[in-house]
Amino acid sequence: MLENLRLRRYDTEQAQQLVDQLVDVYLDAHSGDGPLYNAERYQQQLAVHMPRVGWELVAATIDAELVGYIYGFPLASDTRWWDGVQEPVPAGFTKEDGRRTFAVSELLVRRGWQRRGIARALHDELVGSRREERVTLLVRPDNTAARNAYRTWGWQSVAKLRPDWENAPTFMVLVRMRDRHSPRGAE
């Protein structure tokens, strides 16, 4: 672990001051990933996600530079998160109540800081503190490094999903169940 790595939690109001920096990290982390990963679309995503009840961000800084972050929110009963699931899933799998599932929307680290344990530290800080029964996220099938990391961190692939937005890729749906033996949740 990096000695000077600092993790800090933010709620929506506190994170508003970071939006430009969040976009910069997003663009850096997705450099070369194609036209879907642009500032305008991501600003719109943040504008939709940040006001959600329970939205939370954990930021990683090194010497006051934002080098990465993770954010997510609990899935409400009227969530559209599961829209586009392509494979059969067990009955009730997509039923939400605001307390069952926490969705990790982004886990990003600037390219120059990747492969140093920052993503794992961010992941463990946010996911390890959740009280929901399970946590979910979407990952592109061609993102082998992320898929391998998630697998070693206890995530399982359960389906595929293609969101209903223009030029959306097909994602793998990963789920991690809360460890009921740990007082903090999944460790």
UniProtKB/TrEMBL annotation:
PROSITE patterns: GNAT. Residues 5-180 form the N-acetyltransferase domain. InterPro entries: Acyl_CoA_acyltransferase, GNAT_dom. Gene3D superfamilies: 3.40.630.30. It comes from the Bacteria. It holds the Pfam family Acetyltransf_1. SUPFAM superfamilies: Acyl-CoA N-acyltransferases (Nat). This is GNAT family N-acetyltransferase. It comes from Micromonospora solifontis.
